[in-house]
Amino acid sequence: MATKKSSKGKKDPKKNIKSRSKTNKQATISVEKKGSKEETHFVVKYIRNFFRRMINSIFAKKKNIKLGIYGPPNAGKTTLANRMCKDWLGERMGSVSKIPHETRNVQVKEQVTIKYDDKEMTFNIIDTPGIATKIDYEDFMHYKMKTAQAKERAKEATKGVIEAIKWLDDVDVCVVVLDSSINPYSQVNVTIIGNLAARKIPVLVVANKTDLRKSNIRRVENAFPQYDVVGISAHKGKNMEEFYESLFRLI
Amino acid sequence: MLTIEFVPYSEIENLNSVGRIGKLLDIVKQNKIILMQGRLQPEEETLLISETMSQIKKDFRGVEICTIYPEEKNLQFFNKFKKEMVKALIGHRDGVTIIGPSSVVKEIRRNPNKVELFTLPGASSFTSRGSRKTSRKKSRSRNGKVKVTKRRR
Fold this sequence. Notes:
Structural class of chain A: alpha/beta
CATH topology of the largest domain in chain A: Rossmann fold
Oligomer: heterodimer
Low-confidence stretches of chain B: 125-153
Mean pLDDT of chain A: 82
Largest sheet of chain A: 6 strands, mixed
Radius of gyration of chain A: 33 Å
Strand order of the largest sheet of chain B: 1-2-4-3
Distance between the termini of chain B: 14 Å
CATH class of the largest domain in chain A: Alpha Beta
CATH architecture of the largest domain in chain A: 3-Layer(aba) Sandwich
Largest interface: A-B, 26 and 26 residues
Helix content of chain A: 40-55%
Strand content of chain B: 25-35%
Distance between the termini of chain A: 88 Å
């Protein structure tokens, strides 16, 4: 068995050379084939990247714009968000109430496509809780709320304010909703707009509740002269055309 | 008695944003109204709101804040440049910031160049912890039930 093995192991050197030369040829052919394969692979990769870049650039332009709705409590932020969603999606976004801090969590409605003239833009609408510097649970009790319920609401509202502030970094465009029937020179309004300006986020100031007798758009315009101010009534759907026009102009 | 504490800019100049806010909130929590020289940066204002919200408890319900500063509209290029240089060198010392606890200050009304500070009735009768003294009044209703109502002094 051992001799047989040894005879099997010893191969003819001539045959070996031939086989080596064959393998070398095959190697060179395979190298050439590999080279051409690499070239074709490179070309394919180049073309694929080119198309990917093109597609990316097209979709980057169509990327959803994050539209933040900010403002003090009870200014009508959710009413405006609801109006926009109703106009373009046919559905509401959140509940509305006369009691402040009804919205206590950030709500996001994705893929809201708004058309104005021949333009079309897709937004992710971010409805935020009202920003305030004080929250007293006893204030909620004036609305016939029980103590435990009022305390819970106040606790949730404080968390909501913190969450709203955190979202300031994530919006592309911002609509600041103010109640046009009350004094706009409040520090909360100044702080919100000042922060957006510091972050270089485009701002549209909305003077809401123009249907109220006490409404005064001029006062809001005087308070923020460097910003575009649109007077609307989100509740009644008044002047929404001008709002959409200003929004498109902003972007 | 209302206490107004003046905080010169030099006192907060060397503190970072967190330190500044911490210091201001510590004073406000002692039921004092702060009259601060200069103004906070927009980011510091939001930090103040966030910190206030996170610290709201039974005896601390938040703050009232107002800043007044000279209008810088229609400044000529040189004057604007001069102002920016001064700001860069000595900080935001322009203007005045008023911060008060909401248990004392009901509202700070600001018209462009005028500030009105409204305190709550009976703001002087505060306990050291900041909670308002209350009196309990017993009243007997027609059906004989005793109703206890808290009354603010």
